[in-house]
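Hey, resending since the last one bounced:
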Amino acid sequence: MQRAANRQDIRQYARQGYVGQRSNRRVRLRSTRRSSRRLWSRSRHQGAKLAVALLLAVVLVVLVCLGWTYLPAVFGHWAAPTPANMSAPGNEPGTEPGTEPGIEQSAQPLSNAQDFATPLSVAELNDTGFVQLVNQEHSFSAELPQHVLQTAYPTVDALSEDILVHATALEAVAELAAAAYQEQVGSLVVNSGYRSYSEQAQLYDEAPDKSYVQQAGFSEHHTGLAVDIELLATGGSPAAGDSFSQALTDEASSMEEAGEEQARRAAEWTAENAWEYGLLLRYPSDKQAVTQVPYEPWHFRYVGLPHAWYCWKYNLCLEEYLESLQESGGYQVTLQGRTWYVSYQAQAAQDGVVYIPEGLNYEVSADGCGGYLVTAWN
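The structure tokens again:
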């Protein structure tokens, strides 16, 4: 009986222990489930916060991009400078090309003038003559080598197959003609180019109005770098009276209104864009007191870059440009992906030596006034 009672007690204790263990397992299970739910809830909240943060970052980036793009146009706070508010040389740093090439650039004082230190004898240099002044006071007597002259036609349209132009100038005129055609401004035709001394003398003697013709020896046409051009309306011809040279002179009054407007547009476009190809409108309407030549919208002179740009940018004729260089000694500017350095050396002709830079491309031109221009670029 006693053993039976002991076994019964053992079973009772065992049941109580089992129930207790089961109860403990339930408690632990509930605790684990609560912990899991807390972890899941916490992770879910953290994920939501991260998603919101990423969304806000994306929205912020989009707003910044849109604001940078459109705010200047809307409010004008960062609008590019216009020709009316462009500063004089050296007053502001040069900038990269903007929407219209050349407008935002400004010439700066020559910062590496000390780099023009390698002497070169004037007798040994290759004088391009690109910037040589030829006018009523400065003659041109050099004989051009025949190999530098080329017939204008068929590289460009010309009134005669025997018109000759300096090869470098002809290349620039051809690029200008292609641009004019692409912009639907008109078809460029070369009326005149290089003239010998005898040809210029005959032209001067036969000209009824000598204000538009220079005496032999004092004409830019001797250099081969000057061209007289016309821009004709599509399908036009020189005889049709569509040339922009006629449109901007007294003869324009007899032209039809449509043809006159086309010619005027061509003249304005050429004057504004020729500099990009190194060409300079040689006799502007507002420079007659300086050049002593009436307005000739058809006469362009190749001077190259950056000289053509400088004259266009600061509204200078060639005489004024050379005078400004004599005062400043030179400048530098970044144009068309290149940095240009111009050094004016006034004593070069007297000393018989010019100084060129090391490690840069360069060319040298006499100015016709006793000095030399060294133009270098990287």
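The CA atoms of residues 141 and 217 lie 6 Å apart.

Sorry for the duplicate.
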